[in-house]
Amino acid sequence: MISVRSIFLVSLLVASSFAAPVALSGDWYFPNSRYLYFGTNGTNIYTYKLSWSSDSNPVLSFDYVSSIAGLDAEYVSLHPSLPVLYSIERKKTFNTSSLSTPAGDPTLVATVFTPNSTITGGVTAFSLENHIPKTVIASVPSLGNSPAFVGIIGGARVKPTAPQVLYPPANRDDYYLSVATYAGGTVSLYKINKKTGSVTYPPNSLTFVKLEEVGLNTTNSRQGLRTPHMVLQDLKGPVNGAITMLVPNLGTDHINTYSVNLKTGAATKQANDIAVPVGSGPRHIALHETLDIGYIINEVGNTISVYNTNTLQVLQSITTLPSTFTGTNTASEVLIHPNGNFLYASNRGSNTIAIYSINQSTGLLTTVDIVSSGGVFPRYIVLVDLDEGTGCESNNRLILLVSNYQSPNLVAFNINIDGTLSQNSVITTPASVYCIAVSRPTALW
Questions:
Q1: Per-residue pLDDT tens for 146-161?
Q2: Is the peptide bond before 408 cis (omega within 30 degrees of 0)?
Q3: Cβ-count burial of 211 within 10 angstroms (0-12 exposed, 13-18 middle, 19+ buried)?
Q4: Four-CA torsion 276, 281, 282, 283, nearest 10 degrees
Q5: How far is CA 361 from the centre of its chain?
Q6: What is the value of pTM for the model shown?
Q7: DSSP of 79-142, one letter per residue?
Q8: How far apart are the C-alpha atoms of 340 and 368, rounded to whole Å?
Q9: Which one-letter DSSP state was computed for residue 276?
Q10: Is the dihedral of CA 31, 7, 161, 424 positive or negative?
């Protein structure tokens, strides 16, 4: 019998006869393992190897691989096709005496950049050797305090069920590293070098997200401010050489929308934004693959707002919390099952994971269950398809990884056919994990 691995190898050889040769090293194809990169609020980024058995109820193994220094490296992202890991560093400092003043409104720029001074907050790019972060290849300012997010936008479609995984675009020139600063109110776009994955200062664009003047819930200390928390590309582009960039602005109850020129990186504010109910505090977004629907998780209001991606109108707001919960909570992460039928949301406070079914006609949500996260303060969740790249994806062996920040631990749940969760295993993490980047099942480097 011809194995899936054999078919993959034959396909690779055929492809290589039409393309530049690719250097393969060591553990380059790993159908039964993934590499996990933990962004933490400590002094290190940690690499773990996740392995599993071939059972329908897989036995999981989490093995420590390495660590590398990172100052409050809370959010991490992988390059889609190069061996590069990107990380924010909230406590990284830069002397501006050798840096040019970024372009933009001088009054606003002055709030994040002072000549001949020291500014705090940055983004670092690490080269990966055999999947291990080894060398810093770039370090640039975030241009704003408290960077909260780093990701990649460009010609690729972002896979909404796994924010750390991108579909490679036809042209790597289209890639931009996107950085959102929660305290600075900025979004910076740095063009990524197509050969090395590096970035250089200054950014191609520096955007100060819109500060709304009316309709705000200013009774909450985190609102009434420019506080972008994520940068996401919509699934419709590129159109006429541009993509639409979505920026959840927690402090203004709006998702700001921008058109980004893929050649220059210039970001232009679009006329229409997405407005969620006052006091919601939008944090992150997940986009449905086949429906014109987006899902916004609201950190302050502890709800998910369902909106139409064409009209930008909110169709539904549904709670993330158990009906019996009366304490303090902040909703944190949202993602969609690969089959598009279910959605998951995490709650920091009630320490739960909410599970919803998605109506395949309307996109509206119905609560299926709300279960314990297996720890305290579940800050991040990510899906891993154990059969991705094997040709056996129909086996439906998916797990949900939950990082419980205050425990600190990592809990793995099996995702059942009906979308519900069954706890598989738990490990104690060496630090409080804010974010997890997951490698692809095949890595041609």
A1: 999 999 998 655 444 4
A2: yes
A3: middle
A4: 180
A5: 27
A6: 0.89
A7: -SSSSEEEEEEEEEEEEGGGSPPPSS-HHHHTTT--TTSEEEEEEEEEEEETTEEEEEEEEEE-
A8: 15
A9: P
A10: negative
